[in-house]
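Researcher: Checking consistency across runs. Here is Mitochondrial cytochrome-like protein b2 again:
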Amino acid sequence: MAKIDGAEVARHNTKKSCWLVLDSRVYDVTSFQSEHPGGTVILLKNAGTDATTEFKKYHPLTYVKQLPPGSDLGPIDPNTLAKLNKPKETTSSPVNEVDAENKIPHVSLCVSCPDFEKVAKSVLPHKSYIYASTSANYGLSLKGNLEDWGRITFRPRVLRNVGDVDASRKIFGHNSPYPFYISPMGTLGTINSEAELDVVRGAVKKGVHMVVSTASTRPTTQIADCHRAELQRHKGSPTRLFFQYYMPVDRTKAIELMHIVKEAGYKGLWITVDTPVLGKRTADRVLQAEEALAVGMHEEPTSTWETGDDDAFAPAMGGRPSAGQLSPHTTWEDLSWIRKEWDGPIVLKGVQCAEDAKLALEYGVDGILLSNHGGRQLHTAPSSLMTLLEIRTYCPEVIGRLEIFMDGGLRDGADVLKALCLGATAVGVGRPYMYALAAYGGKGVEKVTDILAEELTTGMRLLGITSLDQLKPEMVNASRLLNEMWRPDSFSVRSKL
C-alpha cells in the first residue's frame, strides 16, 4: 500500500473532509464525527495533524477498531510528517496560572482531603479540571452530597478501652484494611500517561481495593497486568480490582467486554445504571462553546429534537458518553442474560431509591452502590446517605442480604463510620484521589489513603469502638436527614414495594 503524503493529510482539515494520523496511520473520520463521543470540535481541532498523543489521553489506541469500515486509509509517509498541520489551540492552560518556577506545596503539607483540590487546580489543564469538578445543572446534587455528611452527627461513648482498633472490612470476601475503596475515574490519561497505573501502584502499596472505569485511558488488560506486577512487588497486599461496566448497546460487544474483564482477573462487575443518557454538565457546556469558537464554529446549536444532530456541540470530555455507554433501553430483565455470562459478584451502581434497592434484591444481584454519579447526572438527586436512610426505613430487609456501597462527597475518613453505622459495607472515594493524583502522582494516592485511614481510626477511638462490627445505628443522629426524607402520602409504601 502506497504511503500517504503529510501534505495530503493536512488538506483534509474541515468538517466536510476530516483526516488525522493515529499511530502512523491515516484515518478518514469525516463520517464518524456525528458518532464521536467527544463531538466534532475535538476532531476538527486535530484535523490534518498527528493526533496520536491527544488520542491516547482519552482512549487506548485499540479504539480505532471502532471506526467505520474504510476509515483506515493507510500508512503516513514518515518523511512528510513535517507537512502536517499543528493542532488548533483551545483552552488548555491551567485554571490558575502559576509561575513555572514556583513549586507546588510538599505533599506532607496536605493534611486533609480538600487540600489536594487546591493544589490540583493550580496545575491541571483547564479541560482536565472541568472534567474532575463538573456537576449537573447548577450544582445542587453535588452540594447535597458534600453537605449531607455533616448533617449526621455522632453519639460517642466514653470510658472504653480503645487502645487497639481494627478498621478492616471485607468486600465480597476480599480483605481490606479499610472500609473504603477507590471509585472508578475515567480518562485519567489527561493528567499524565501513567496516571491509571499510578493509581494501581498506590492502591496496592496501601492495600486498598479499586474499581476500574470502562472509560479508562489504558486498556483493561494492561491495568490488570500492572496490578499483578505490583502484587508481586508488595507481597501480601490484599488489593483487588473490580470493574465499573458501561454496557455496550450491542449485546455481542457487551458479552465480549465481560469476558475480557473476567479473563483479566477482575473480581466483580459494577454495572452503571444511572446513565441511560448523560446529565447536563454545565461547565462542560461552557467548555464546548469555547472550543467550538476556537475552531471557527460560531453558530448557536439548535435543539437535538429539531435537527436530530448535536454532534458539533456534543459534551466535552467529562460530559461525553463513554464508548459502551449504557443503553437507554436497558431494563431489569437484562440482568438475566448478564448473570449467565458473568458468574462473579454483580453490583448495580447508581441506585437512588428504596424501591430499586428492593428490586435489586429480587433480581438476584449481589450488591448495590448508592450513588448519584458524583452529582453529575440528575439535577437535585438524593445523596447516597438519604437513599440509605430510605432503605433502612422502607425495605430494611435489603440490609444484610446485599452488600451496600456508597459514594459521593466524602472528604473525611471519620464520616465513613456514619455510613457503616447505617448499614453500608464500604464507601467509595473519587475526587480526592483524582486531585491527589494530579498534584503528586502515586504518592498522592498513598497520602489520601493515609489521611482517610488516620481519620477513620481516630474517629473509631473517639466514638468508643475498637472494631467495625461494633458500629450501631444508635451511634449516629440522623434526625435532620430523616426529617427531609421522602415519605408516602396516603398509601403504604411497603405494599407498593
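Researcher: Does this match what you'd expect to see?
Model: One thing to look at in this run: The two ends are 64 Å apart (CA to CA).
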